[in-house]
Amino acid sequence: MARPDAEEGATVAPGHPLAKGYLPVPRDSAAGKVSAEQQNGPRAGSLLLNGVPRDNAAALSGALGGPQILLAPEEETQARLLSTDAGEETPGAEGTPLPQTALSTRRFVVLLIFSLYSLVNAFQWIQYSIISNVFQGFYGVSLLHIDWLSMVYMLAYVPLIFPATWLLDTKGLRLTALLGSGLNCLGAWIKCGSVQQHLFWVTMLGQCLCSVAQVFILGLPSHIASVWFGPKEVSTACATAVLGNQLGTAVGFLLPPVLVPNTQNNTDLLAHNISIMFYGTSGVATLLFILTAIAFKEKPPYPPSQAQAALQDSLPEEYSYKKSIRNLFKNIPFVLLLISYGIMTGAFYSVSTLLNQMILTHYEGEEVNAGRIGLTLVVAGMVGSILCGLWLDYTKTYKQTTLIVYILSFIGMVIFTFTLDLGYIIIVFVTGGILGFFMTGYLPLGFEFAVEITYPESEGTSSGLLNAAAQVFGILFTLAQGKLTTDHGPKAGNIFLCFWMFLGIILTALIKSDLRRHNINIGITNVEIKAVPVDSPVDQKPKTVILSNQPESSI
C-alpha cells in the first residue's frame, strides 16, 4: 500500500528498525525526496531513492536507527540529506548514518565581521591617493611617492600570496582572519605616529603593514562563502564579502577630503586633521580585531552543502598545496580567467589610484567632488556586485554573466574616457557610476567563476591567485597610466586601459565553462551539463540519494 499521510512525519527511535520498510526523511530535505515502493515493486524489499531502486534495506535501517545527532543549541540549522557521487553502491550492513548538511545562523556574524575589517583595510588603501595633493604638500614629497602608498598594497600581495594561501589551507580560516585583522590594526596605530612633516617613512611603514594584512583578507570572500553558506546563497554571500572591501574604498573616497581639507597654508591645522583621521581609523580597527578574536569561528558544526561535505570527508594528509597550485596552472580555463580578471581588476585599481589626478587636470580645485565621484563609482559597483551575486545564485550562468559584464565594463570605460574633458562635472558623476556598476560588479563574478571551474581545489588558493594577478596588472597599469596622464593627459591613459580591457573580453570568451561545484551540489558528477536556473523545471528532475561510504569510526 501507499504510505498513509499520517506517517510522513514519523521518526525512528534510536536502535529500532524501520517500520514497514519506509525511509524517514525530514520534510525540508533539499537533496530530494525518498520514496518506498510496495513489496511487489521492482524488487521485493528494495528501496526506491528518487526513482532508483536500491537493495540493503536492512543496512539503511541500521544506519538510520542509530543514535540521533543533535545540533548545537546556539546554532539554528536546517538539516538536509547529502548526496554522494552517482554510481556508488549503497553500503552493506556496516553502513553509516546519512551525512547531514546544515546552515548555521553564525554564518551571518562571520560574514559581517569580515566585511567590516575588510572595509577598514580598503579605506586605508585609498585614503592617501584621493587627497594626493594634500599629502604631497604636507610631507614634501613627489606625487609618485604618494602613489606608492597605494601601490605598496599591490606590490606586497604578489610575493606574500603563496605563504598566505598555504596558511589558509593548512592552518585554517580563524588564524588567517586574526592575522588580517591584527596587522590591519597595528598598521593603523603606527600611522598615528607619522603626523609630522619629516616622518613620511613612518606612514609608509604603517601602510606596508596594512598591505600585508590585505594579503590575508582579499582571498577570503569565496572561502567564507563556500565554508559557511549553502548552494543557493553562496554567490550572494561572496558578493557581500567583496562588498565590504568596496564599501571601504567608497568611504575612502568620501571621508578624507572632508576630514582633511586642503589647508596647506596652516600646517598645524592640517596635522590636526590628519591625526583625527588616523586615530579614528585605529579605534575602529582595534574594535574589529577584538570582535574577530571573540566571534570568528573556523567552520560551522555541519557542512552547508554537498560539495563542502565531500571536501571535508577527504583525509587532510591527502592535500598537497604544491599539487593544488600545479593543478590550477594546468587548468586552461582558469589560466584564461586569471589573465582576464587581472586586467579588469588592475584597471579598476589604476583608475581608483589616479582618479584625483584625472579630475583635477580638468576641474581644478574639485578635490571634494573627486572624492564624491570615486564614491559614486564604488557605490554603483556595490549595487552591481549584489545584483550579479543574486543573478548567479538563481541562474548559475557563470560564463555568460561574466562575459556580458566584461563587455559592458569596456563600454563604460570608453564612455568615461571621452566624456571626462567636456567641462561638465555632472557628466563625470554619471559616467563614473556606469563604469563602477559594471567594473566593480565584476569582482565577485571572477571569484565565483574560478571556484566553479577549479573545484575541488581550495577556494583560497584560486582566489588568491586571481588577486595576485590583479595586483601585478594594477602596478603595471598604475605606473603606465600615471606616466601617460602626466605626459599626455588623462585621455591617453584611459585609452591605454580600454585596449587591455578589450583583450580581456577576448580571453573571457575563450573560457570553457565547466561548473564542477554546481554539478556536485545537484548530484551530477563527471557529466557536462547546461547551467539552468536553480528553480527551473529542468532542475526539478529527481536526484539519486546514495549513502556515503565513510567508515563508522570517522563519524
- Compute the number of structural domains: 2
* Structure annotation, total helices: 19
- Report the count of strand segments: 4
Helix content: 55-70%
| Distance, first to last CA | 35 Å
Look at the structure and name the CATH superfamily of the largest domain.
MFS general substrate transporter like domains
- How big is the Rg? 27 Å
The proportion of residues in beta strands is under 5%
Keywords summarizing the entry:
555 residues, disordered N terminus, Growth Hormone, Chain: A, two-stranded antiparallel ribbon, glycoprotein, single chain, 2 domains
Overall description:
The chain contains 19 helices and 4 strands. With 555 residues, the protein is an all-alpha fold. 50% of the residues are buried. The N terminus and C terminus are likely disordered. The strands form 2 sheets. It has a two-stranded antiparallel ribbon with strand order 1-2. It folds into 2 domains: 203 residues, MFS general substrate transporter like domains (Growth Hormone, Chain: A); 206 residues, Growth Hormone, Chain: A. The protein is globular and about 65 Å long. Strand 1 and strand 2 form a beta hairpin. One of its GO terms (molecular function) is heme transmembrane transporter activity. Keywords: Cell membrane, Erythrocyte maturation, Glycoprotein, Membrane, Phosphoprotein, Receptor, Transmembrane, Transmembrane helix, Transport. This is Choline/ethanolamine transporter FLVCR1. It catalyses: ethanolamine(in) = ethanolamine(out); heme b(in) = heme b(out); choline(out) = choline(in). It comes from Marmota marmota marmota.
